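Might I ask for a little of your time on a matter of protein folding? The record follows directly beneath this note:
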Amino acid sequence: MARIFTVIIMGILLLASVSASQAANPAAPLSTPEIKQSISSGKKTIIFFLNPNGGPCRSQNEILTRLQKERKNNFNIAYVSALQQETQQAFYDYGVRGLPTVVLVDSKGKINRVFPPGIQSYEALAAALDGSI
C-alpha cells in the first residue's frame, strides 16, 4: 500500500514539474503581423511595447537601436505602439500594464523573459540576449 502511494505521489510530482517547465517558457502569442514576422524569422526577437511620443519610450528605443546596430542585426525588434488600435490585443496577450515594456523571445518562439516596465539598460538587455540572465 505504501509503495502504491509513493508511486502515485512521484507521478503527480513528475506531472507538476513538466507542467511548470512548459509554463516557464510559453510560446509567444503572434498578436500582430510585425510580431509574427519577427518571431518566424528564426532569430531572437525583442518585442518593444511603447508610446512613440513618450520620453522613456524614446530613450528605450535609442538603447535598442544601438544594441541592434552593435550586434549587427543578430536579433529582431518588433514594435507594438499603444497608439495603434490594431495592436491593442498584443498588450493583453503579453500582460503589458506599463510602458516601455520589453519582452525577449528566443529563436524558437518561446518567451524567454518579460522585463518589468521602465527603461532597461543596454547591459541588462545585452546580458539577456546572451543568455546570462
